[in-house]
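task queued by scheduler; priority normal; single chain, no ligands, no partner chains; default sampling; output format set to structure tokens
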Amino acid sequence: MAYSARLRKAIGAVRASLACLGIVSQDARFRQHGRHAPDPEAPLVLVACSGGRDSMALAALSGTVCASLGVRCGAVVVDHQLQSGSAQAAADAAQRCRTLGLSPVEVRRVAIDVRGRGLGEEAAAREARYQAIVDVVRETGADVVLLAHTKDDQAETVLIGLSRSSGIDAVSGMPATFTRDGVRFARPLLDVTRRETTGICEDLGLRWWDDPTNGDAVEAGTPLPDRYPLRSRIRHTLVPYLNGFFGGDLASHLADAARLARQDKDYLDAAADVAWRESVIRSSAAEPGRDHDGARQIDIRADALAARHPAIRRRVIARALALLGAPFTSRHVERVDELVVRWHGQGPVSLPGGFQAGRRRHVIRLCENGTHADR
């Protein structure tokens, strides 16, 4: 078949993403015409597939690219059990992946429990989904998992970030690659629009499933009510409004801006790595230290951190709070930063979730239980 322009673009994006991860042609025979079975020990690429148009397009694209490289390609489908008929939707998605020639195709059911975790349903579902995917990777030995986030998803992520925080992290969006629990993830379609993934499915004759919570069944131009998830409301209500208000494709502009901001963020994160090693007092940079009562804590040399630029200081503080599992905003980071550069004997800073930050002489202690701050 003759490939459409959008199909060629997306295939190139997947190929480039895999190449950046070191997954390239395994043998000269795979550059020749005809189908050639990959070797059993060839790298395994897994596609996280929900059965929606974006992930079905990615599954088909990945199958094509991996076959041309001599790389194995499979899929993992997660059933969150949040909707009636979710098991059938997951089974249908898995069968479509198998029809595309992907193998292995794993279906995992997860239970979502938001009680006592401080997470909403969306966040809890995301955490459960990642854990299920990580489990499949460890069982199959996959080299990377591909996620089907598009340029539109990136723009929506920027808008969500701006609503919840500030600074460059809010506008840098989702990274093209990242590692979680030792598993590599990649997002090859961040420069591909949702309109293009829909067109790719149409080009290839692929059926897809639209999650009803996405709001795709609502008439175009109709604002979604509050019962829909925030991301869906941003997609169908806010983004169309902003595009109309500014008279252009603002979503594409936001996604492009996120790509540039991500480069700046990566540079700042690298500088923060150096500051972390020089100012954080503990034996391991991987996990927070614990005192003799088992309470989580991290000690920071205030004098070493004070010499750093404010952007780097606050990155170190935010990283420490994140490692402790403390919920925080940019305002909480600023208050802890005041202990570093404007300390005059004031008491500890109370943080959400039962955490505190206090200073004694040249040491700032962030801890789970405030009673440890004064030890």
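post-processing summary
- Confidence is low (pLDDT under 50) at residues 283-294.
- The chain has two domains: 5-209, 282-374.
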